[in-house]
């Protein structure tokens, strides 16, 4: 994919398996949204194609997928229900079926009292709920979500995640672009990390964790951790740290070392390396912040 003489996506190839939730990750400007738009034909790529079930994607197949873009696209002078019914008709639903589905969905997302309210009178989070409803109302087999929790508070973010989990249980294939690493660890079966249009990691969450260090320990302590030959500090902020054990070291030996240095440890949890620390390593803290 090129913009003028600048190549922004470089020899990128990946598979998304039926029924899985796939995480497309990267910092701002890494090529995530450009990749999706090129695959869907919104941008014209210099080379490459999107295949669904082995067949090249055509715009006539758009009824089989739902796409939630990062920039939302609703008719804000129209009412919530009229907008949803309109999009339902575009997706091949009857007006009655679209109305019934929309009212049921609005109740699910706590907007049951607002079907006749104009969209521009809703908050950003409420508009986002309507946009998601428009995206999933035709029960797409492939669901592409670009920053789906953008603008959501923690309560509504949890509600959105429950809807995505519901779609996942129903067998929908989901591609999710997000910066929320806890959502990725919770929902995604496999992931790809892009930086400057190049693939840096690809595989199951566990495979990527192993690729970038495997076993780690999360620690809560009363002071910053000292440097040590026994471990590498991955993150250390406000008393919450994550370390990677060096070869030949053990979690118990590290704990003894910290206690001997009079560091009060309130929590010490061995496990796999977090995706957040991997994200920071790949993209650098300046890019993440």
CATH class of the largest domain: Alpha Beta
Main pleated sheet:
6 strands, mixed
Instruction: Give me the CATH superfamily of the largest domain.
Output: P-loop containing nucleotide triphosphate hydrolases
Here the CATH topology of the largest domain equals Rossmann fold
Helix content: 25-40%
Q: What's the count of strands? A: 14
Overall body shape: globular
Radius of gyration: 22 Å
Q: Which structural category do the helix and sheet elements fall into?
A: alpha/beta
Mean pLDDT: 86
CATH architecture of the largest domain: 3-Layer(aba) Sandwich
Strand order of the largest sheet: 6-7-8-3-9-10
Number of helices: 10
Low-confidence runs:
none
What's the helix-strand series?
A: EEEHEEEHHHEHEHEEHEEEHEHH
Number of structural domains: 2
Report strand %. 15-25%
Distance between the termini: 27 Å
Describe the structure.
The chain has 289 residues and is α/β, with parallel strands linked by helices. The chain has 2 domains: 203 residues, P-loop containing nucleotide triphosphate hydrolases (Rossmann fold, 3-Layer(aba) Sandwich); 60 residues. Helix content is 34%, strand content 24%. A 6-stranded mixed sheet has the order 6-7-8-3-9-10, with helices on both faces. A 4-stranded antiparallel sheet has the order 12-13-11-14. Strands 1-2 form a two-stranded antiparallel sheet. β9 and β10 form a beta hairpin. The protein is globular, with a radius of gyration of 22 Å. The mean pLDDT is 86.
Summarize the structure.
With 289 residues, this protein is α/β, with parallel strands linked by helices. It has helices spanning 32-39, 80-90, 95-108, 124-136, 154-169, 181-187, 205-211, 251-260, 275-283, 285-288, and strands at residues 2-3, 6-7, 21-25, 51-52, 55-56, 65-68, 142-146, 173-177, 190-195, 198-204, 215-221, 231-237, 240-245, 265-272. The chain is globular, with a radius of gyration of 22 Å.
């Amino acid at each position: 994919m090129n913009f003028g003489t600048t190549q922004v996506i470089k020899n990128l190839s990946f598979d998304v398996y039926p029924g899985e939730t796939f995480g497309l990750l990267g910092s701002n400007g890494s090529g995530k949204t450009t990749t999706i738009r090129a695959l869907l034909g919104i941008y014209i790529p210099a080379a490459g194609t999107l295949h669904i079930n082995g067949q090249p994607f055509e715009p006539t197949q758009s009824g089989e997928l739902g796409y939630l873009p990062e920039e939302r696209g609703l008719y804000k002078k129209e009412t919530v229900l009229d907008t949803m019914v309109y999009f339902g008709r575009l997706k091949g639903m009857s007006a009655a079926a679209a109305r019934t589905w929309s009212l049921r969905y609005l109740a699910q997302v706590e907007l049951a009292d607002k079907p006749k309210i104009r969209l521009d009178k809703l908050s950003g989070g409420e508009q986002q709920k309507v946009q998601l409803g428009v995206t999933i109302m035709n029960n797409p087999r492939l669901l592409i979500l670009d920053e789906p929790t953008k603008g959501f508070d923690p309560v509504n973010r949890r509600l959105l995640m429950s809807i995505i989990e519901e779609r996942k249980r129903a067998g929908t294939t989901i591609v999710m672009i997000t910066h929320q690493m806890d959502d990725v660890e919770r929902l995604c079966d496999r992931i790809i990390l892009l930086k400057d249009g190049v693939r840096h990691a690809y595989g199951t969450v566990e495979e990527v964790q192993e690729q970038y260090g495997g076993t780690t320990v999360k620690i809560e302590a009363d002071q910053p951790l000292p440097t040590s030959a026994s471990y590498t500090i991955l993150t250390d902020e406000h008393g919450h740290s994550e370390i990677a054990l060096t070869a030949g070291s053990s979690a118990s030996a590290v704990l003894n070392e910290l206690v001997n240095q009079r560091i009060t440890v309130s929590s010490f949890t061995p496990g796999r390396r977090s995706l957040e620390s991997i994200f920071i390593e790949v993209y650098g803290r300046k890019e993440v912040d």
